[in-house]
Amino acid sequence: MRMLRWIVLGGAAVLMVTSAAAQTYDPRYPVCMQKWEWGGSTYFDCSYSSWDQCKAATVGLAAMCLENPYWSRAQPRYSGRRVRTPAPY
What is the 3-state secondary structure (H, E, C) of the chain? Predict the structure, then answer.
């Protein structure tokens, strides 16, 4: 009887555990939308190329726009020459 109780308790614990879905931030887009869902969960949608585009998508939703932390900004090109700093006087 005691063993049956532990089996039922263990089975209930296994059924309560849900699989976690990994969210990815798309590095091609600079703006993400964070949306809150019923039950307290959130997800990120990083498919916006401007703040205005993201703001238009959040109208009427429990959501906000954020800067994508993994957005790869364009790096300045270097000509290979050293930049001279002015000599102090």
Answer: CHHHHHHHHHHHHHHHCCCCCCCCCCCCCCEEEEEECCCCCEEEEEEECCHHHHHHHCCCCCEEEEECCCCCCCCCCCCCCCCCCCCCC
Spell out the SS3 assignment of 37-52: CCCCCEEEEEEECCHH
The Cα–Cα gap between 41 and 35 comes to: 9
Rounded to two decimals, the pTM is 0.54
Task: List, for residues 21-59, the tens digit of each pLDDT value.
Answer: 556 677 888 999 999 988 888 888 988 999 999 999 999
Please identify which residue in the block is written with the tokens 């993400």: 32
Residues 43 and 35: beta-carbon distance below 8 Å: yes
